[in-house]
Amino acid sequence: MRLLCISDIHGHAAALAAVLATAERTGYGKILVAGDLCFPGPDPLETWRRLNQAGAVCVQGVGDRALATLDLSGVRPRSVHERARLDRLTAVRTELGDLILHKLAHLPPALRLALEDGRELLLVHGSPTDAMESFTHDMSDEEVMALIGDDPADVIVCGGSHVPFDRTVAGVRVLGVGSVGEAPGGHADATLITTSADGVDAVQLVIPLGQAA
Questions:
Q1: pLDDT score of 63 more than 90
Q2: Which listed site, 26, 28, 178, 203, has its alpha carbon 20 to 30 Å from 84?
Q3: Are residues 190 and 6 in contact, defined by beta-carbon separation less than 8 angstroms?
């Protein structure tokens, strides 16, 4: 089984298209998305449509939850930046419409997948102990263990930090898949995971934006 694992698209449909075009050359069977799908980028509806057309399996990220459930009636922006973010959130809600917002609100916080070698993969935006609190590439082993918690999977695929990494701590492999839409450095990140009875192989992809290569 070959899995295309991505996260943090943030409504950047062109970046998503570049990632999909690149991955199609190698081939994959399923797309796993670790949250933060549509906000605040320029093309939230097109991003949602592309993910649905591709049959992507998605979990809920911080931005997805805020977009779908945040009550703005009592929110008072304290800066020009906060005002702009609230205005953009309102605009994205309008573009997506109630049906898609309802689907975003009901995305699962995590998803577990059985692998061919008998192990288990966990897809989550943040971490097993808190779907909204992310692993980062520069955490100590002790900090990683605290977020892995008491009921980990063998392989954890996560987003949130926007920086890809591959760590194994206490026998648990944590794959941070970076960001499609807001990666530092003007590119898009993805991870191709190949699973078999022999184990799990992961290759991190860096796709320059503006070209699917």
A1: yes
A2: 178
A3: yes
How many beta carbons lie within 10 A of that of residue 28, not counting itself? 19
Quote the tokens at residue 137: 């590439």
The tokens 């760590």 sit on which residue?
Answer: 167
Residue 173 · residue 3 · CB < 8 Å? no
Q: Binning pLDDT at 50, 70 and 90, where does residue 210 land?
A: low
**Helix, strand, or coil (residue 120):** strand
Per-residue pLDDT at 76: 85
All structural domains of the chain, each given as residue ranges with its CATH number in brackets, are 2-208 (3.60.21.10)
> Which amino acid is located at 84 in the chain?
A
Q: Which residues pair with 157 in a beta bridge?
A: 123, 175
φ/ψ region of 201 (left if φ > 0, alpha if ψ in -120 to 50, else beta) reads: beta
- Residue 203's identity, in one-letter code, is V
Bond before 108 cis per omega within 30 degrees: no
Instruction: Please report which residue ranges of the chain form alpha helices under DSSP H.
Output: 13-26, 44-53, 62-69, 80-105, 141-148
